């Protein structure tokens, strides 16, 4: 017990060391659109109010994540402009998921040593470093941790039959479904897989699962009757379904194996308004990538069917491997199905957030296979050495990526820090307000401002401040006493600015109204 506790303490120290340079970085990309909607909701005297947060989806992709943005809304109200707390909460959710993966792995009978070794690699994988540095996806580690906790409790229910456990299990599963579409098939699949193993306990489990999906559907219907919705859900065709199946196997081979083992193949990073991996998939056109995904996926499916049909192979399949494989395939299939109808299909294989949860089950599958099938001492030593090398290479690449993000975000961190200091010192006040010219992002690295996201709202960086602090800003340079300067990363008295003043768009007066309509066009 003490050794395991010591391991997790050491792992936490390593993670803090790796990611601490990013802990004071400001929000980026999608955060700014969300913060703007949060401020509008707080300023509204009436409806639509909170439904604007629940259904927030500026791209109108038709996603259904009614708990994801309320989590960010709560975090913003709790943490305000204290960027450190966002990062610590995100890291805590990530670290909690690793602890729960360990507990789940032990439930599957995986040996402590092998499990710890594989989870160490998982913790530092480059393919999901941005889950920690980009706090906008806070709901992802939190919801994944909730599902893992529910899964562990469900296994305990199967073993002991305590019906009271189904209450927290149902609540945890419902929370995960409301955070991300990826989990859509997991509770149902878990029930179907375990049907034969729970005689006498089947009916309560069926009722719990039905209640979870029933409430989920009810929440969907209620939220879709609001005046502001996140757009209609897409309707995939047969070709999209087949492509999504192929995407599961392509991603398993491309990111799950190749990039995880050789992360340097995906660098240098592509840094624009977001961060993406480079590598072969990034060089292909969307049409070519879809073709490659379809071919690789089709061949993989055929091979998987042929191999699984061999009796000798079936005898060697460790118990529980099917469950883990189901979670990997069902989760990524839902992700791919949602992207298959959009122009962003490539994002599945290039953006980091899509790899974190699939990697978790891939790592557990690897640990289970090695623990059951690699018996000899020399063979285990080879596995140990290989995993240590993989972890070390990933640590080096992750550290470089974190430092890159920190460098990119440093100017914005400096600017916002000085503005926050000016407000605290009483220099910037409602009577002596500050203007943030719209052209100021042009002075900063591209990661500090997502131009595509910026078109969904007015203004720039003031939205990270509290409701009271917002009165210290004005959208009009003519009304300002202070004006932020992108060259010096500070604010200066307006009358001391050298002409010409930073560019400023003609913004309607309703921009600064503290109440009013929250139409999608506003």
The value of Rg in angstroms is 25 Å
Q: Indicate the proportion of strand residues.
A: under 5%
Q: Are there runs of 5+ residues with pLDDT below 50, and where? A: 499-522
Main structural class: mainly alpha
The strand count comes to: 5
Listing every helix as H and every strand as E from the N terminus to the C terminus, the arrangement reads HHHHHHHHHHHHEEHHHHHHHEHEE
Distance linking N and C termini:
56 Å
* Biggest sheet, spatial arrangement of strands: 3-4-5
What about the largest sheet? 3 strands, mixed
Instruction: Based on Cα principal axes, name the global outline.
Output: globular
What does this molecule look like?
The structure is a single chain. This protein is mainly alpha-helical and 522 residues long. It is 59% helix and 3% strand. The chain has 20 helices and five strands. The protein has helices spanning 2-19, 30-43, 51-54, 68-79, 83-107, 112-123, 130-133, 139-160, 166-179, 186-194, 202-223, 238-261, 280-283, 286-309, 311-316, 321-340, 347-350, 356-373, 377-424, 451-454, and strands at 270-271, 275-276, 434-435, 482-485, 490-493. Strands 3-4-5 form a three-stranded mixed sheet. It has a two-stranded antiparallel sheet with strand order 1-2. A hairpin with a 3-residue loop joins strand 1 (270-271) and strand 2 (275-276). Helix 8 packs antiparallel against helix 9 and helix 16 (321-340) packs antiparallel against helix 18 (356-373). It is globular and about 85 Å long. The N and C termini lie far apart (56 Å).
């Amino acid at each position: 017990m003490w050794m395991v506790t010591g391991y997790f303490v050491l792992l936490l120290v390593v993670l803090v060391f790796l990611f601490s340079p990013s802990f004071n970085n400001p929000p980026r990309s999608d955060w700014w659109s969300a913060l703007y909607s949060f401020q509008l909701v707080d300023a509204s005297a009436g409806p639509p109010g909170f439904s604007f947060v629940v259904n927030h989806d500026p791209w109108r992709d038709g996603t259904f994540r009614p708990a994801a943005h309320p989590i960010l809304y709560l975090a913003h109200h709790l943490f305000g402009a204290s960027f450190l707390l966002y990062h610590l909460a995100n890291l805590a959710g990530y670290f909690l998921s690793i602890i729960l993966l360990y507990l789940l792995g032990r439930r599957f009978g995986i040996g402590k040593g092998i499990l710890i070794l594989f989870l160490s690699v998982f913790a530092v994988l480059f393919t999901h470093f941005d889950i920690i540095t980009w706090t906008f996806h806070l709901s992802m580690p939190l919801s994944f941790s909730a599902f893992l906790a529910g899964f562990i409790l469900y296994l305990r229910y199967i073993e002991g039959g305590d019906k009271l456990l189904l209450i927290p299990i149902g609540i945890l599963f419902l929370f995960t479904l409301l955070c991300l579409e990826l989990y859509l098939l997991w509770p149902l699949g878990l029930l179907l897989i375990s049907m034969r193993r729970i005689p006498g306990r089947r009916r309560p489990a069926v009722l719990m699962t039905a209640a979870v999906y029933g409430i989920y559907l009810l929440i969907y219907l209620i939220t879709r009757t609001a005046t502001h919705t996140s757009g209609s859900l897409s309707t995939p065709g047969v070709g999209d379904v087949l492509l999504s199946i192929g995407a599961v196997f392509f991603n398993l081979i491309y990111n799950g194996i190749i990039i995880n083992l050789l992360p340097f193949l995906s660098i240098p990073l592509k840094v624009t308004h977001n961060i993406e991996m480079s590598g072969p998939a990034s060089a292909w056109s969307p049409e070519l990538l879809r073709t490659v995904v379809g071919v690789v996926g089709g061949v993989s499916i055929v091979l998987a069917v042929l191999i699984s049909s061999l009796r000798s192979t079936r005898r060697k399949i460790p118990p529980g491997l099917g469950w883990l494989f189901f979670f990997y395939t069902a989760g990524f299939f839902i992700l791919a199905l949602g992207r298959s109808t959009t122009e962003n299909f490539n994002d599945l294989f290039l953006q980091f957030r899509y790899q974190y949860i699939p990697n978790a089950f891939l790592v557990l599958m690897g640990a289970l296979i090695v623990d059951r099938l690699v018996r000899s001492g020399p063979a285990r030593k080879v596995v140990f050495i290989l995993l240590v090398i993989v972890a070390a290479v990933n640590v080096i690449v992750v550290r470089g990526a974190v430092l890159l993000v920190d460098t990119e975000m440093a100017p914005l961190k400096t600017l916002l820090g000085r503005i926050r200091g000016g407000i605290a010192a009483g220099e910037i006040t409602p009577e002596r307000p500050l203007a943030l010219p719209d052209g100021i992002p042009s002075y900063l690295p591209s990661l500090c401002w997502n131009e595509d996201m910026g078109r969904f709202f007015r203004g720039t960086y003031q939205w990270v401040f509290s409701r009271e602090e917002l009165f210290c800003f004005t959208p009009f340079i003519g009304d300002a006493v202070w004006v932020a300067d992108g060259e010096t990363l500070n604010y200066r008295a307006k009358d001391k600015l050298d002409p010409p003043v930073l560019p400023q768009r003609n913004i309607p007066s309703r921009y600064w109204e503290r109440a009013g309509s929250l139409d999608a066009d506003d």
